[in-house]
């Protein structure tokens, strides 16, 4: 008896989208260079401290801030979510959710101000604020996704002889990835906006346009910084949606 397999359109795998992610991020850096020509009349009043850097360079600095902070968030948040969701650690899981939640209950500007006496100005306090602010959705969604894995699936994995590590890598993390990716998208979009505050500490980025525009009552500068930050947030969210297993 011949078995006939139905064929159809297959959705590209997440691995393929991940391979395309970084080249796409580089293309994003070219967008502000095109937009700078469109906003040339508005940017005529850019002060020397920002005028020496074209708009595409300010956007690149902003992108580096966000992606660098998100990398730290992932390196901390995902292992932390895995650790506290292991059996017998319910109390630790609740404590972790409470502590990480403080990162969003405390205003970002307050976190940055408290970090300045110890870390000084520039990148260190800015990155710390972004990490604390971005940890909440990643940890919360990571915990929710891992807890949502069906117990029957885990029992089946044990039945075929999988070790705890194999169950984690081959079953739990893949099944929880859609929920985790939703948290990563939320964290990234949040931090695109939050990173603008870091310009007040000398971290640079698009926030320098907004801050200088406010200080000079220059609506054009504020508009440029706000529009480019919004476009950057939308672009990153769209790219992360592509690599998400849910595809949206």
From TrEMBL:
InterPro entries named among the record's database cross-references: ABC_transp_perm/SBD, MetI-like, MetI-like_sf
Keyword Transmembrane in record: yes
Keyword Transmembrane helix in annotation: yes
GO biological processes: glycine betaine transport; transmembrane transport
Membrane topology annotation: Multi-pass membrane protein
Keyword terms: Membrane, Transmembrane, Transmembrane helix, Transport
Protein's recorded name: Glycine betaine ABC transport system glycine betaine-binding protein
Transmembrane segments: 60-84, 105-124, 130-154, 175-201, 221-243
Record-level GO cellular component terms: plasma membrane
Domain ABC transmembrane type-1: 59-240
Pfam families: BPD_transp_1
Family, as annotated: Belongs to the binding-protein-dependent transport system permease family.
Family annotation (SUPFAM superfamilies): MetI-like
Localization, UniProt: Cell membrane; Membrane
